[in-house]
Structure formats: structure tokens, C-alpha cells
# Entry
Amino acid sequence: MHSRTIHILNGPNLNLLGKREPEIYGRDTLEDVARTCAALAVELGLETALYQSNHEGEIVEMIHRAREAAAGIIINPAAYTHTSVAILDALNAFEGPVLEVHISNVHKRESFRHHSYVSLRAEGVIAGFGVQGYELALRRMAVLLG
Ligand code: DQA
# Structure
């Protein structure tokens, strides 16, 4: 396990961040998020690696890989937040801290977005802070890892 490496995992449609519904998700891209988080990680004495997949099973496998390679996981499971027992089970098999991020305020949106399987596992949840939520989660991760 890499004691200072944080994996930032992103679910379906987040590859379109910056282009998809910018009034909800903003104009920053996932590459911008990767760059900002990598720079902040240096300040915090951490390292980040950001991944995205549109496929549930691939996200499960990303979490399995994090078991070997990451000290903590920051995850925005996107729509799978609200549906995926498989992602919850995979996170339950990960030993380090897990933080859940949503760019939008899911509680202000449709009721099907109010329930999160991943929240049953996450140490903390950030929603509605835009892409800044990833940076705030990274700062919290630095505290949790000491
Ligand atoms: C999201 C919120 C989800 O409800 C939605 O399906 C997404 C993105 C967010 O970051 O606000 O794709 O996780």
C-alpha cells in the first residue's frame, strides 16, 4: 500500500465534465480537477491519481486496485451512487478512508438522488461545492491520514 497516494475515482458521464449540463456541473473539466488536485496534493504531502469509467464493473476493479495502491479513496460514483450495491461492497473491502464527493447539491435535486449506497461506507460526504469539493475532500483526507 502506498501510504500517501490517494485515488480519485469518477463514475459515468464525468468524462463529459465541463461540457455536460454546465449550469449544474460547471465548466471545469475532469482534467482540470486532476491538475488542481495533483498540485494541492504536493502541498499536503500526498500524491493523487484520478480515474474515470462509465462502467460499473470497471469502477469495482478500480477499487480493488486501490486496495494495493492507495491509502485513501475519494469517489464521485455519479449515477451509480444511487444504484450500486457492487460499488458499496467493493468499498467495504477497502481498508483506508473513503470520502464521497458530488459536484452538485444532490439534496436539492430529484428525490432519487437523495439516497446514496456509498454513504453507508464513506467517512464523509461533500455535495454542492462544485468541483472545489474534490479539493476539500483532499484536505480532509490529509487530516484523516495524519
Ligand atoms: C453527481 C450527482 C449524481 O446524482 C449524478 O448522477 C452525477 C453527478 C454529482 O457530482 O453531482 O452524474 O454525482
